[in-house]
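@channel sequence for tomorrow's demo:
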Amino acid sequence: MTRLWIVRAGKHGERELAAIEQSKLFPGFLEVGDLNELKDRDAILAHLQEVMPDAGHNRLRNFAAQLNQFVNTIQKGDLVVMPRKVTNGAAIGEVTGDYVFDANDPYRHSRTVAWREEAIPRDSFKQDLRHSFGAFMTICEIKRNSALDRVRSVLETGNDPGVLLGKQGVAPGEPAEENAEAEDYATDIEDIANQQIVSLIKSEFAGHALADLVAEILRIEGYTTKVSPPGPDGGVDILAAGGTLGLGEDCICVQVKSGDGAANHDVVLRLIGSVSNTQAQTGLLVSIGGVNTAAQKELDNNFFKLRLWQMPDLLKALFRAYGELSDETRTKLPLKQIWAPISGGDV
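structure tokens (generated this afternoon):
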């Protein structure tokens, strides 16, 4: 029977690009050794007690259950969701390979996957599934509320039909702890809230309007800005300059990409050209859909000239500036700060 799993790629999405580029699942747990010969949770728990002697017993049992699922329970043909942190999307694929350990691989533990979609917006799914995607666990199953059938429907039609009566998809016959699933764990409230804010930004500041929001944030941070009018911009959406009257040496050329797709290598090259043409010191790429591997490599190669704001960076800048945004902007983005206890579980 096909099952549906969440496998994350880092608390901050640090393994996402590699997972997409290499068609692999990279759950982390880098301090853990080869698990190929460990065929159940208890055997994995014994290994964890050796390599993580300072961790609490309950935490180790939790990790052992997750790793046992990744190594022994997930089967070829199962579907997997990788909620993404650097965009508001989720990658969905089919597991194609068994567990592999490679001590020379920086990510060590992996399974191959054929990605069916690399960044489906989370608001393609109804709220209950979005909350399941926000579970704190790195590896867990999603079964309730017809989750598997609904994810398949989104892949095939782009539509989440909601709970399908009579098809709850609960797998019988497993011990309670092994059978725990996404809905049984604490939800990452911050992640859920951020995803809702991202959806609001995409709705209220679609297209060129996102450049206006970025320019307003930069003005609050002390820059004088010039926003290009809508239409072809030649790789320049915003010019920003610091100092008195905007005549300081801190001059930035900004390119804003508001679409869901990842910015590619050509986008970065155009930004480099725009920095030169405008005599700016720095280029800033703002991309809601993140960047692909080639683009990230070009950004890394131009560390002293280019910077990247993906969605988490844009949100941090928005939160810093929120109290000074115009009334019109805050009406479009009505937010308030709350305090919540921290839960663990992701690695």
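heads up for whoever presents: The chain is about 35% helix and 20% strand.
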